[in-house]
Write a structure and sequence with these properties.
Number of helices: 8
Shape: elongated
Order of helices and strands: HHHHHHHH
Structural class: mainly alpha
Mean pLDDT: 86
CATH class: Mainly Alpha
Low-confidence stretches: 5-10, 34-39
Radius of gyration: 18 Å
Number of strands: 0
Number of domains: 1
Helix content: over 70%
Strand content: under 5%
CATH topology: Ferritin
CATH superfamily: TspO/MBR protein
Length: about 200
């Protein structure tokens, strides 16, 4: 019975996370349709707002599903001495999601065609998808091992995203540097927790 509940829960998360990763594509397609139907372009400011809300929303929804706050299971784990205090994570991630959104907004507002930016959008969506799942795998499924695999993939995709973004805008690429720095630190932390509790 517990196995069936886990499978059902997993299916629900797949549906939710799939919706999250498709949201960026739908926003971009909507913008494209508006551009075709009207001689006026979407105001660049709105592109930034949508991009920021997408990133912040991914973090908020993931955190709510993972029940990361006041997690009794996590409190019982052995953690390294350099584990940051819990109150630090929320402001750090809020800032990082903001920078991610601005970075995406810069790419979205770039003058080149949407077709040329398709790979950049896909990579950004993939890393956001992996980001969305990390908290769920770690805090909800209580699996530092799966979370470690997820965040290692995230590291690789973020680096490729930065390189791809740099082809359109150096500023957009640099805005993701604090993100990869923090995720790299989180990867070491994830590995340490897994190693201390296996």
């Amino acid at each position: 019975m517990q196995g069936e509940n886990l499978v059902t829960l997993f299916k629900n998360y797949v549906i939710l996370s799939s919706t999250e990763i498709l949201l960026l594509h739908r926003c971009l397609m909507h913008a494209k349709l508006l551009k075709m139907e009207s001689p006026h372009k979407i105001v660049p400011t709105w592109k930034y707002i949508i991009a920021i809300l997408l990133c912040e929303g991914a973090g908020i929804i993931s955190g709510l599903l993972a029940s990361a706050n006041n997690n009794v299971w996590f409190d019982s784990l052995n953690t390294p001495s350099w584990n940051p205090p819990a109150y630090l994570f929320a402001p750090v991630w809020t800032t990082l999601y903001l920078l991610m959104g601005i970075s995406l907004g810069i790419i979205w507002n770039h003058k080149t065609t949407e077709l040329n930016k398709r790979s950049a959008y896909s990579l950004f969506g993939l890393q956001l998808f992996l980001n969305f799942w990390w908290s769920i795998l770690f805090f909800k499924f209580h699996s530092p091992a799966l979370a470690l695999l997820d965040i290692l993939l995230m590291d690789v995709v973020i680096i490729i995203t930065i390189v791809t973004f740099s082809k359109f805008s150096k500023v957009a690429a640099w805005l993701l540097v604090p993100y990869i720095a923090w995720v790299s630190f989180a990867t070491l932390l994830n590995f340490s927790i897994w190693n201390l509790n296996r």
